[in-house]
Every structure is written in C-alpha cells, then in structure tokens.
Design a protein that fits this description.
Blueprint (H helix, E strand, L loop, with lengths): L18 H32 L1 H11 L2 H28 L6 H28 L1
Helix pairs in contact: 1-2, 1-3, 3-4
C-alpha cells in the first residue's frame, strides 16, 4: 500500500495549538498531577502520625525549594482543575459553546487559577 493516494491523517505538527485544545490537555495533565500530589500529601500525613522524628524528616523535604515547587504546582493544579471543571459544568448544561465565549471562559480559567494560587500562597505565607 505504499503507492496509495489516500490522504494522511492530520497530526500535531500540522495544527497550530489552540487555547481550547491546550486547556483540554492541561486539564488531563492536572488530573494526573493531582493523583501524584495526593500521594505526597498522604506521605506527609502518615509522617505526622508516625512520630516527630520522621515528621521532621518529611517536613524538611516538603520545605526545601524542590518540595515548595512541587507544592506550588500541586496547588495550581487544584485550582486549574477546579476552574476548568466549573467551565465543563456549564458546557454540560449547554452553555458557553460559542467560540468567543469558549475563549473568554478559557482565559478566565487560566487567570482564575493563577489568582487563586497566588491568594492561597499569600494567605499561607502570611499566617
């Protein structure tokens, strides 16, 4: 079939990424990140119950620059997944499918997740 004149299926190198597709992929990735982040959260909780020595060890890892970066990413994933999930609930109800509305709600999702993450970290660092 090497001489077939059938058209080839388009692929990612043909299309320019669109906001809707990027947000869809990001929603799936944040879902995976939430599952992995939950393992770290459970590890921290188990350490709290295991005794002060192990808790200090785990807290040291969580408080390192890498641990804080993971926690920042986890908290952003929570808020992005939440905001995009609300957006999907409106879609499930039949609202927001117009292209302009889809882009506005998409950018609102991105902005909302960043603002909510910043507010949560500001409150957490202040308290």
């Amino acid at each position: 079939m090497s001489g077939s004149n059938r058209p080839m299926s388009p692929h990612l190198q043909v299309y320019r990424p669109q906001l809707t597709s990027v947000l869809s992929i990001t929603h799936r990735a944040t879902g995976v990140a939430l599952a992995v982040g939950t393992i770290f959260l459970v590890w921290w909780l188990v350490a709290a119950g295991a005794g002060p020595d192990y808790f200090v060890y785990v807290q040291g890892i969580m408080g390192s620059w890498l641990g804080l970066l993971i926690l920042l990413g986890f908290s952003w994933a929570v808020f992005f997944h939440l905001c995009n999930g609300i957006r999907h609930l409106f879609w499930d109800a039949g609202y927001g499918f117009e292209l302009e509305t889809a882009y506005k709600s998409g950018w609102a999702t991105v902005a909302g997740s960043v603002v909510l993450t910043a507010v949560a970290w500001a409150i957490g660092l202040a308290g």
